[in-house]
Write a structure and sequence with these properties.
Helix content of chain A: 10-25%
Number of strands of chain A: 13
Distance between the termini of chain B: 58 Å
Shape of chain B: globular
Number of helices of chain B: 4
Distance between the termini of chain A: 35 Å
Radius of gyration of chain A: 23 Å
Strand content of chain A: over 45%
Oligomer: heterodimer
Order of helices and strands of chain A: HHHHEEEEEEEEEEEEHE
Number of strands of chain B: 31
Structural class of chain A: alpha+beta
């Protein structure tokens, strides 16, 4: 990776950061305590410490959350594979460090085909929306780095949405939109329709990607929440390629679309 | 020497040497373990040890943090006006505290770490000493972290100095609780990560209300009745689950006084004794004019004393059902010790309506405030509403509403309303908040018997303060359930930079507007709320008998007012008594400032208030 490409990536991350910055970030602790009448009785020092603690306990807790939305075996396609899609975050209500990862490994001895990890700063900008910015690194296939800007949240009518735009260190612009829904058949049996679409602004021949809409995965997963945090599932997913991407695949002798069956686990802590 | 104190101590301590029920203090043991009603027991000195110890709840052994080795803790009972000394020793590894809920103690004895004292550090003994000018049923609990959830609470009774206007032959204390075998910090973390994960009554394909329409658009659930439910909680009465059967005895024809305290962390309960009417004689420790009813909803931290007079020699069930009907605790009142009344089936789960969202039916167009639409205000904290108050030292009023309501009566208090911080923590502002004092609470509208409402309550004694308020302070209860953020005026306690100011000697009106979908039991330390009931004439008659409460439940989309005599100088905690709401930020401090150092308050205030003008929603509901 060259220095200039690093700068470019860092730059795109910074755009998100500066977009997200608001006055409350810059707010400093007040010089005068918000109340202090007990100081005269118990001493300033003892009260100052206790006051700091009670304020922090009133909404400033940091939470660590990890969710593996998909940990699944996919069969019935060209090659059996293992697919994962997870995220973790740490922070307060507004500012969080957010990690996302997604990838695929062959279950037929082919090793890891795709593996990416994103490290993002996430800021709650509206009741249901987070604006996120940071870096993505594709461990496989090619060690390519990207800058990321994403909007993530809950749309009206309970649709979970994650829309990300990526600029690679080579200057290629791509985007990914994920949306899912949780339909409770019972309090524990849940049907999850899910769609993921990938787009590109240009052909990226070395990755076999054409410009425009290049792929859609549309799946249905049926899970049973033994505990809310532990839910095995089965499912089916249609994975299709379009446009230039489809041509690349077909030129290489592959199937442009296939339907796979899934067995997996959704888990969070 | 065998002093009265020793006698009391041994009475408090006997539980420790007995069997399963014997792990409880005498008053909390069932009749089958020798409790035939409270005996006269009063002291003026109490030693309370805070520690961790095993308890047995619903047949399962678990660890509690509490007082003197029992859950609930010992009954503290003393006489009105007596000076009492309470030595509280911390045997935990963490700080602790005891707050005397509803007691008018000097503020530095109020027991809120960081607000009224520094807290009790490990190994320390803190001595509380006070005399209070009141009697009745109260309780006490930790104000540190989440200790209250794991057993750090107990009942407190102050016997009247004179004759008790309430006549009874026998009395029991019933401390309602919600026990969890899960670490409370884990419960809170689950709410933060996945706020609906503890709710097992969510909308489904067969019960789809909430998925579509306004609910879906707003991303709010009409089935969000309680954050923590029977899936997590074992509901208890004096530490007894339904299976443990707390049983009480009576002689037919006797008047039995039940002192009911909701010491739950998160649970509002519906209380009833099927087949047995109750006469409510006291609410929050203060006597009320007797009112007969069949069921009432009790908010967390509220207390109600009722008289029942069972005529038949049969077992009656005492039922405390959680508001979301995901569970209940049933005790027995019977003619013989050890009887077990039949527990009723849990009733159908109620469902919220547009009314609870603060929306009028069929008039919802354009009312949505969701999705972070800014109201035109930028981050002001609550304290900034107090601009131009004496001693404040702030230059100009540039925000907040302080103009009289043009539609209201001629003589109005100056009105102070902070701008709501419309950040990620506020999903909704009730477009049409309303008075709901004449409603019994969620789910009790359509039960086939009488239910208690706040508007039925009248203080037995004449109110001590008949003045009209000079100022009105408006506070919105705000939230984002999805992120599990709870606050006042959109500002979490952790973000507060200035307390709410009252001035010694003033009569102030506090108006609470609930912008959330949940009922919140709001508690202000050190003062009583004189509940303003619309239609009650304040100038005389029943208007001088406003019910006085230390905790008031504000229903979804409700707007209610309380008048307060700011008598006791000090810093006083002000918060939602749902423990995890407080923990998430639904808390503030009210500073009652001495007036001798400040100038007289300006009589009228005019200010510019842009954006959302709640003043327009005001008329017709005051007084």
């Amino acid at each position: 990776m060259t220095t200039s490409s690093l700068k470019r990536i860092a730059g795109s991350g910074l755009i998100a950061l500066s977009l997200a910055a608001t006055p409350s970030l810059a707010q400093e602790a007040p010089d005068t305590p918000p109340w202090n009448q007990a100081d005269a009785i118990y001493g300033e020092e003892a009260m100052a410490k206790a006051r700091e603690d009670v304020l922090a306990e009133g909404g400033d807790q940091k939470t660590f959350y990890v969710l593996f939305n998909q940990l699944e075996a996919q069969t019935g396609g060209e090659e059996d594979s293992f697919y994962w899609n997870g995220q973790a975050n740490w922070g307060g209500d507004v500012n969080k460090l957010w990690i996302k990862t997604e990838g695929r490994a062959s279950l037929e001895g082919g090793g890891v085909d795709d593996a990416e990890i994103q490290a993002l700063y996430s800021r709650a900008v509206a009741p249901f929306w987070n604006l996120q910015g940071g870096l993505r690194y594709d461990i496989e296939p090619d060690g390519l780095a990207h800058g990321v800007v994403a909007l993530n949240g809950l749309a009206p009518y309970w649709f979970e949405v994650d829309a990300s735009a990526f600029v690679s260190e080579k200057g290629d612009l791509t985007a990914r939109i994920e949306a899912e829904y949780e339909l409770l058949l019972t309090q524990r049996l849940i049907l999850q329709p899910r769609i993921e679409a990938n787009l590109a602004a240009q052909d990226i021949p070395e990755r076999g990607t054409g410009s425009g809409l290049n792929s859609i995965d549309a799946g249905l997963r049926l899970r049973y929440e033994i505990k809310r945090e532990f839910a095995p599932y089965i499912g089916v997913e249609w994975q299709g390629a379009f446009g230039g991407t489809k041509d690349f695949i077909e030129a290489a002798g592959g199937e442009a679309d296939e339907t796979v069956f899934l067995v997996g686990l959704r888990t969070w802590y | 020497m065998f002093t009265r104190r020793h006698m009391l101590q041994s009475a408090l301590g006997t539980g420790a040497v007995l069997g399963a029920s014997g792990l409880l203090p005498a008053w909390a043991r069932p009749a089958s373990a020798g409790n035939t009603g409270l005996t006269e027991l009063a002291g003026s000195q109490f030693d309370l040890d805070i520690g961790k110890f095993p308890v047995r709840i619903n047949g399962r052994t678990t660890e509690a943090t509490g007082i003197n080795g029992t859950v609930p803790g010992p009954l503290i009972r003393f006489r009105e006006g007596d000076e009492v000394t309470l030595n509280v020793t911390n045997r935990l590894a963490a700080d602790t505290s005891i707050h005397w809920h509803g007691l008018l103690v000097p503020f530095h004895m109020d027991g809120v770490p960081g607000v009224s004292f520094p807290g009790i550090h490990p190994g320390e003994t803190f001595q509380y000493k006070f005399a209070v000018p009141q009697n009745g049923t109260y309780w006490y609990h930790s104000h540190s972290g989440l200790q209250e959830q794991v057993g750090h609470y107990g009942p407190l009774i102050i016997d009247p100095a004179g004759t008790d206007p309430v006549q009874y032959d026998r009395e029991y204390v019933l401390v309602l609780g919600d026990w969890t075998f899960t670490d409370p910090h884990r419960v809170f973390a689950k709410l933060k990560k996945n706020a609906e994960s503890l709710n097992f009554n969510r909308p489904t394909v067969t019960n789809p209300t909430g998925l579509t329409g306004m609910w879906g658009q707003m991303r709010m659930s009409p089935r969000d009745l309680a954050d923590v439910t029977g899936e997590t909680y074992t509901y208890v009465i004096n530490g007894h689950s339904t299976a443990d059967n707390f049983n009480m005895v009576f002689e037919p024809g006797e008047k039995v006084r039940l002192r009911i305290i909701n010491a739950g962390a998160m649970t509002l309960f519906n209380v009833r004794l099927p087949g047995l009417p109750m006469t409510v004689v006291q609410a929050d420790g203060l006597n009320v004019q007797p009112v007969e009813t069949d069921e009432f909803q009790i908010g967390v931290a509220e207390t109600y004393d009722v008289i029942v007079q069972p005529a038949e020699a049969r077992a009656y069930a005492f039922v405390a059902e959680s508001i979301d009907r995901s569970g209940q605790a049933v005790a027995t009142l019977g003619p013989r010790p050890g009887m077990r009344a039949e527990a009723p089936e849990l009733r159908p789960v109620p469902i919220l309506t547009m009314k609870d969202m603060g929306m009028d039916h069929g008039n919802m167009g354009g009312m949505s405030e969701a999705d972070g639409m800014k109201s035109g205000h930028e981050g002001h904290d609550m304290g900034s509403a107090n601009v131009n108050m004496p001693g404040d030292g702030m230059p100009a009023m540039d925000h907040g509403a302080m103009k009289p309501d043009p539609h209201g009566p001629a003589d109005q208090p100056a009105r102070i309303e902070a701008d709501i911080e419309r950040g990620p923590g506020v999903v909704n502002v009730a477009a049409m908040p309303m008075s709901r004092l004449d409603e019994p609470g969620i789910g009790l509208d359509d039960v086939p018997h009488r239910t208690l409402t706040y508007s039925q309550l009248r203080s037995l004694d004449m109110n001590p303060d008949h003045r009209s308020p000079e100022r009105e302070i408006v506070v919105h209860l705000t939230s984002n359930m999805e992120r599990y953020m709870w606050s006042f005026d959109g500002v979490k306690f952790s973000e507060v930079t200035e307390s709410i100011k009252f001035y010694e000697g003033e009569r102030v009106r506090l108006t609470l507007i609930n912008d959330t979908m949940m009922p919140h039991p709001i508690h202000l330390h050190g003062m009583f709320f004189d509940l303003v009931i619309p239609g009650l004439d304040a100038s005389g008659g029943s208007g001088m008998h406003m019910p006085r409460k230390h905790t008031v439940v504000v229903k979804p989309a409700e707007k209610l007012s309380v008048d307060i005599a700011a008598e006791h100088v000090g810093d006083w905690a002000f918060h939602c008594h749902l423990l995890y709401h407080m923990h998430a930020g639904m808390m503030q401090v009210v500073s009652v400032l001495p007036t001798d150092v400040s100038e007289p308050m300006p009589a009228t205030m005019e200010m510019d208030h842009e954006g959302m003008d709640h003043g327009d929603m005001k008329h017709g509901e005051d007084m």
